[in-house]
Amino acid sequence: MKITLIAERIFDGEYFHQDVPVTVEDGHILAFDTVVGAKEIRQAGTLVPGFIDVQVNGGGGALFNADPSVNCIETIGRAHARFGTTGFLPTLITDDVSVMANAADAVAEALVKGSAGVLGVHFEGPHLSVPKKGVHPQGFIREITDAELAVFCRQDLGIKVVTLAPENVSPEVIRTLVAAGVKVCLGHSNADYDTVVAALAAGATGFTHLYNAMSPLGSREPGMVGAAIESETAWCGLIVDGHHVHPAAAKVALRAKSRGKMMLVTDAMPPVGMEDETSFELFGTRVLRVGDRLNAVTGELAGCVLDMATAVNNTVNLLGLPLAEALRMAALYPAQFLGIDHKAGRLALGYRADFVLLDAQNKVQANYIAGQAVYTHP
Known about the structure:
By secondary structure, the protein is α/β, with parallel strands linked by helices. Helix content is about 25%, strand content about 30%. Helix 5 packs across helix 6 and helix 8 runs antiparallel to helix 9 (about 325-330).
C-alpha cells in the first residue's frame, strides 16, 4: 500500500522545503511527489528524520538491567516513540556477565522479531574506571575476560557499541573488538591524554556523554575531554538536559569540535514517559526524580529523564543552535556514527520511512517507523 504524507514543510536532513509530498511504499520512501493510487494524508507541522538514540537505559517504567528481556526492550521503545525516537540501542550498564548474556539474547530476539526501533545494543561497561564510575556498581567493574569478549563478539546483535575505559582495556583488545564489528566508545575513564589517543589509534570511534565521568581538560593535562574535542574523526555523545553539562561548556565543545561529530543522547532511565514516577531502584540504591533531574540518594547524577525531542529543543534554546543543526544532531550524526546513514538519518529516496511530525513548538505529533505510525498525539 502506498501512502503520501503532505506536511506543511519537511526537513530532509539538510534543508527545509515547503509542501513537498512524501510517498511511502513497503516501509521506504518511494517518491517526493504524489503517486497514483496512494492514499493522501495532509498534516499540519514539519516532517523531519526520525531521531536515533545510542544510549537508552530505560523508559516507560522499565530498566534494561532489571529486566533484560524483549518485553522490556519493547516497553522502552514505546515510551521513547512518543518523543520522536525511531531507532535506539537498548543500553546495559555495568553488570554480571550472566545479565550481559541475557541482554544479548533479548536483543537478538528483538531483532529477529522486528521490534520497532531496535538497532542493536550498547554495553556501557563493565570495563570502566572506578574513580569515574558514577552510579555504575563498583562490585561489577572488572577486567575484560573471554566471557565478556564472547558476548561482545556475537554476530546476531545488530549494531554493537561498547563503552570502556582505555586505561583498563589495552589497544590490542580494542583492535579485537573493532575487528568483531564493535563500535568502541571511551568513557567512565580517568585516562590521560596519551592513553586516549592510543585507544583512538586502535580503532575507538566515540566518546560516551562528553565531559561526564571522564578526565577533564586542563592546561597541561588535556585528559579525555581534551582528546575527545581535539579528534577530528571521533563522535561525541552529548547530554543536553541542563544538568549534566553547563551550556557554556557545551558551546565551547561545539565550536571546537569538527562539525557533524557531536550527537544528542538521552542516557534515559525508567521515568521517561512516566510523569508520576518519582523514584526507582538501581542496584539496590534509590534514585530520586526532582523535576527533570535524577540523583542517587548518594548524590550522583543517575542518568536522565530526557527524551530526544526535549534534547532537540534544549539544543536550540540553551545552546543557541539553529533547529536544522539540532535535528541533524538527533538523526543524521548518530546515523553516521552507527554506519547506517545510507538508509537512516535523512529523508531521501530509498531510505527507510522513519520520520517524525513536529508542531510549531517542535512537540511530537506523530512518529512513523518504516512507514507505520507507532505514535500519534491524542
